[in-house]
Amino acid sequence: MFRRLTENLFLKLLSLAFALILWFFVMGEQKQELSYAVPLAIKNLPANLMVANEIPSQVDVRISGPRTLLMNLDPKDMGIAVDLRGLQPGVTSFRRLEELFNLPGALKITRLSPSFVDVRLERIKDKKVPVKLVISGAPAPGFELREIQLAPAEVLVEGAEGELKNVAQAETDPVEIEGVRDSFSLIVPIDYRGRYTYLKEDRTVEVHVTIVKLPEPEIPAAEVIGGEQTGEKKE
């Protein structure tokens, strides 16, 4: 065994000396602080749950240490992720995000913003809601909007359970009928803008609008020349 230890002894001593020199160089180098924008992600989102709050896409971190090590850092390689495995619906606070960083021992995090992240998980639900056609303007004088038919009349909305409870309808893009005299049909986009809910299927609706002409008002019988009027005689 002693022979094995003494084999290539010179190369081993040289490698050790080089490592010590490098270590002393790094540790003795003037320290600096640099700021980085580090990507923040989530992982292992449980099935049938979704994130129902705003989570920053990155954290701002300030790191102190030898300039040589700082210059070799790549923010993309420092990306961190919060692990949602096994979580239940509700709010979970992830604190001490600095512990998620894997940095060389000579580097130190001096500032982290935000320093923690709250994650709200909610169950994913769906329900059907009626479609409401948004009308702009009015038909031409003497005409009226008689009927509106929509296909489909309902659409399926899916998303966070808490927000879904307050969804009562899905509105369309405005349909202009100013001065219209005739019935018409067209395809209209559904303008649904949920924050944590979304249209699951149909994103357009077929609209049939019936415009009818109003009956002309009756003109009262006028007095005729000679003193006669409709329905009576003058004595």
UniProtKB/TrEMBL annotation:
Stretches that traverse the bilayer: none
Organism, as annotated: Trichloromonas acetexigens
Name this polypeptide is given: YbbR-like domain-containing protein
